[in-house]
Amino acid sequence: MVSLICSLRHHTDEVSCCAFSPSLLATGSGDKTLRIYNTADFSELPFSPLSGHDYGVHCCCFSSCGSHLLSCSTDGSTIVWSSETGEVSAVLQHPGRSPLRVCALAPDSSLLLAGASDGTVALWDLPSKTLRRCSAVSEASVVACCFSPCSQMFVTGCTNGDLRLWDVDISLLHAEKDAHDLGVTCCNFAPQFKVDGCCVEFRLASCGQDSRLKIWIVSQREGAACVVKLLHTLTSQSAPVLSCAFSSDGELVVSGSVDKSVAIYDASQGTLLHTLKQHDRYVTAVAMSPTMPWIATGSMDRAVHVWRIGDGDIGAAAESRQAVCQGRKLPGHSRLLLADWSEEDVRTWLCEEGLEGLVSVFKANNIDGPELSQLDKETAAELGIESVGLRGRLLRKIEALRAEQSGSEAPDEFLCPITRELMKEPVIAADGYSYERESIESWIRGKNKTSPMTNLPLQTTLLTPNRSLKMAIARWKSSSSV
């Protein structure tokens, strides 16, 4: 069971972020303030709210011990606050004063990272409050970042959809191109990690405008390059996923979405455990307590809900894992989208569907997920599958697989956020989101010159055709009509 403990409604604008320390909950808002609550009874502290930013607060986080609270804003500054008094310990101005979208603190509290709209990150030494380095990490805005549990690596996510892994000298370790189509929105490492001999393995969650939450395995062997492998693609939410967080034990992962829902998953198996739908507008922030079974969720409806995860959920997760191990209900590849399947995943699927006789043919022709999704009667004949009955069975299985994974409705990223209709002429606005040209032009002609998605001012009214999205919509329409 998941039960609502309390609702906090003190902000006068949308809630943009929330974070737990062992004893406090912090929330940030477009109203330029942070509010601090005691988790003993969720009463607001006497020195709250904290005011120091000139524009809306985008992100906040606590140091591991909870003594410091960090926040960043469109004003280009990261403020370090004392959690005990609410006083400002330092104001760290980003070089070039570019608007900051995200900040993160290393688990050992040695380093502070701030990501900016100009594609740069600033890495600060927290104890001395001195800038170590400011480097360009992307041509797009940096909107997500997080440190690994060992504090020796960090990940950045950008509006162009890339995830990149760096060491603390800001040297690139790995680049995952197009990790999220249309843009990354958030990323977080699980607090736990595994060490096997000279190999260390982390779990990373990321989410994006493609309405997907992905869980990755990040591993590094001593003296070797980092390897990033996709473990799960989770698609229970029907609109862009804006935030994600792991539980302190790494067993659960939570995400908040534009569809107003909060999803709670078993992080190991990728199975959906709960969906919470009490917010009235987009869920922009999620956080999990490091000490208690609590989730905080923030929304554009200006509310912060605090939830308790009942003891039964851990048992339910374990039971789910046991059921998965005992049966073949959720084989490993089925938790990935078909486009992410490897050749091995395809061959495993053939065996599970009683088509073992085709394994050698598929292996010889290097058929992976994308190839399987495009396979039709003519292609099957070209592969040398002579039996008409076998070809028919294969095509029926593929059709059922497509239907199971995608359903009959258009993917949410193909719908205009304003009209919720399939886009014909998608364009990218200054906020980084794609809209139907006619809809966003009508919006801009009105008196409101803010983003329909974020409510922040649009820096320019220039609209750029999104040709790749238009082509993707055309391909989807073509495949849906077959």
**Poorly predicted ranges:** 312-335
Q: Kindly report how far apart the N and C termini lie.
A: 43 Å
Largest sheet: 5 strands, antiparallel
| CA gyration radius, whole angstroms | 23 Å
Q: What percentage of residues falls in helices of 4 or more residues?
A: 10-25%
Oligomer class: single chain
Strand content: 35-45%
Instruction: State the shape.
Output: globular
How many beta-strand segments? 32
Number of helices: 8
User: From the helix content, strand content and strand pairing, which structural class follows?
Assistant: alpha+beta
Overall residue-averaged pLDDT value: 86
Short description:
The protein is an alpha+beta fold.
Annotation keywords:
482 residues; alpha+beta; 4-stranded antiparallel β-sheet; 8 helices
